[in-house]
Every structure is written in C-alpha cells, then in structure tokens.
Structure prediction request, 202 residues.
Amino acid sequence: MELPSKLLDSAVNEFSRLPGVGRKTALRYALHLLKNEKHTSHSLAQSILNMRTQIKFCAQCYNISDTDVCEICLNLSRVQTTICVVQDVRDVMAIENTGMYRGVYHVLGGLISPIEGIGPSDLFIDVLLKRVQENKVSEIIFALSATTEGDTTAFYLSKKLQSFSITISTLARGVSVGDELEYADEITLGRSLQNRIPYKGH
Prediction:
C-alpha cells in the first residue's frame, strides 16, 4: 500500500506493530488522528509515555501499579494468607473482573517453557517461595493456563512448595484444556476459582 507521506507511512508502521492491528486498521487510526484536533494526538502520546515511564511493578506480587506496592496487596480486607499464582497481569484483571476472589496474587511473569528457553530462574518463583516462607500463607492457588507450559509450571511449583505446611489447589477444569485465563468468561472463571480442587501433581 503506497502512501503519499513518509510521515504517515511511519505512523502506520508503528500502529501496525500492535497485536491484531493490520496496515488497513493502522491507516484508519493514523487518519483519525490527522482529522482530529492536535491535542488529541498530544494527549494520546503523553498517556502512552506516562504509562511506559511511570507504571511500576508491585514489590510484593509483581502486578502493575502506580505505587511501589499495589492496591490489592495494601488492601487489608483481602485475605493475605491466600495467594493466587498467575502467569501475567492480564490474568489478575480477568480474575478481579469475576468479583469472586478476595485473596492476593503472585504474578510469575510467564510460564516455564524449555522450547522458548524460559526456565524457572526467568520467572518470579524465588520471590514467591520467600513470601510463603516469611508470611503466614495458608493456601496457594494455581490459576495457570491449561496448557503444557501451565501444567509444567504448576508441577515445578508444587515440588518447591512441598516443604511448607500449606494447602495447594488449582482451578476446577471449567476452563478448557489449552485455554488462556484471559479469554475465559467471567462466570466460568469465577466458578472454577470458587470450586477449586486440591492440586495433584503427576
């Protein structure tokens, strides 16, 4: 697609880097910004810059936050002794949207995947073990995707947590095998969490 402006072409190229955005959609975004007042573009650019430079990762659970410790971890009405272990921040958002969980979280930052070269040391696993050791944690919930990587990660974690006197549970299989948590509907995910079952490693 030949464009009449190199500047427009550059903007389209940047928009098309976003997931699920092809060049036609990227062009529509760019032309929309051109058509509107300049402050619209300035506001968008500033909000993206602020997000990229000012958002922090919670020092306790690694959820995204505007402060050093996130609102969930600071909320004393949450059950601090129950930790839900998830792959990334999108899973925290998905579970929070159900309104059915009152514990806290731990974001691993990924899943163990030898094929992709991701090992335990690449994830926030040691920090989780330290939290369990230093706090009176009574239950760990594995809310990981029902994939080979999710199962591998859960199995590894279960072995690491064996020495602690805690309950280890996992989501009931309302979430289909191969599914990512962020794509599960809120009712299914909420029920899977409420009806969680004891984890049994293979």
The chain has two domains: 6-54, 57-198. Residues 175-179 have pLDDT under 50 and may be disordered. The first helix runs from residue 6 to 15. The chain has eight helices and seven strands.
